[in-house]
Amino acid sequence: MKIDEAIKTYLAKTNQRIFRPKAVLFDMDGVLYDSMRFHARAWKEVADKYHLKAEESDFYLYEGRTGASTLDILYQKTFGRNATEEEIHRLYEEKSALFRAYNDGEAMPGAAEVLAKVKAAGLQRIVVTGSGQRSLIDKLEHTYPGIFEREKMVTAFDVKYGKPHPEPYLIGLQKAGVEANEAIVVENAPLGVQAGVAAGIFTIGVNTGPLADRVLREAGANLLFPSMGVLAQNIEEIIMAS
Ligand code: CA
Asked: Where are the domains of the chain?
């Protein structure tokens, strides 16, 4: 898909006249960190332990949901009921502990280049994540020095609803002080793409996981790239296209 065509389509669909990006809203897992495989493995192990029906690949479809919402889906599929508060608390703790044990904190290849180009173009960089990891800003500062600010992050502590609800990205717009047509979302997950689109923002899908491209297109991605490295080659053109 050509970039100028994608922007035209976005403007028509959102009933906007201009696209003037001033901020880029980045999802974290699967976009800035190559960490989704550790989330999927941790979830699959917990599901197996509690005899919940799930394939490892399912967790790429659920990505972006809150822990509680993911567990409700697993309990519905297996037992035809939602998870209890106690089950949610216990299983999510176990999943989080496994994720912390597996996670190697590796940056997503190409992400640093995208961030450097966005910063050089004078656009704000905002992280929008469902993660509630402590000292997230320290971790980001370690991986991507000088790119992010503590006040310009949306985490699990800011939001009531998980993706695909637009709330996390709407809060991201507020924190950046920009309108929907002044921002870009970068997302790897179908529910994250849906959230960006529902917030009225130009949403770039980056397919860093095992799902078919079709899944991200059907979620509404305005543009789709196979990696952050390929996005890095195109981000300036997208910013300048306005
Ligand atoms: Ca993600």
From this structure: 3-34+106-240, 36-102
Is residue 86 exposed (0-12), middle (13-18) or buried (19+ Cβ within 10 Å)?
exposed
Q: What whole-number distance in Å separates Cα of residue 59 and Cα of residue 61?
A: 5
160 C-alpha to center of ligand 1: Å? 18
Nearest-angstrom CA–CA distance, 6 and 224: 10
Q: Ligand 1: distance of its center to the CA of 3 in Å? A: 23
In angstroms, what is the span from residue 164 Cα to ligand 1's centroid? 12
Q: Report d(CA 26, CA 133) in Å as an integer.
A: 16
Tell which CATH architecture fits domain 36-102.
Orthogonal Bundle (1.10)
Tell me if the pTM is above 0.85: yes
With cut-offs at 50, 70 and 90, classify the pLDDT of residue 144. Answer: very high
As a CATH number, domain 3-34+106-240 is 3.40.50.1000
